[in-house]
Amino acid sequence: MRLLYIAASDPYANQHAQTLLDALLVAASFGAQVSVLFQGHGLLQLMPEQDGALLSRRSLGAQLDALPLFDIDAIYVDHADAQRFGLADTGFEALHADAIAALIAAHDQVIRL
């Protein structure tokens, strides 16, 4: 099964970002083909030097670095949103709207948080 997780939530405004990260790691550990697209405020999860401890939360940056250990290599960012947040060089493939539509169409299920 091909699953696309769209990370669209601010990393520390609520538990959505952590919930999405936990869900995609579980899916990958059970053999699903997992892709991740960071979009909207979800791109803030990629900001360097995050410290969730100030909010009594785990920092997401270190957890995101572990994605390749779970064979999650298909990681994308929304090009327009990356430009808006000044994250032009995230190290992940930046997709324009037409490529995002194709990415969504290529997956069996799409989960957005």
Automatic annotation (TrEMBL):
Transmembrane segments: none
InterPro entries: DsrEFH-like, Sulphur_relay_DsrE/F-like, Sulphur_relay_TusC/DsrF
A Pfam family: DsrE
Similarity section: Belongs to the DsrF/TusC family.
Protein name per UniProt: tRNA 2-thiouridine synthesizing protein C
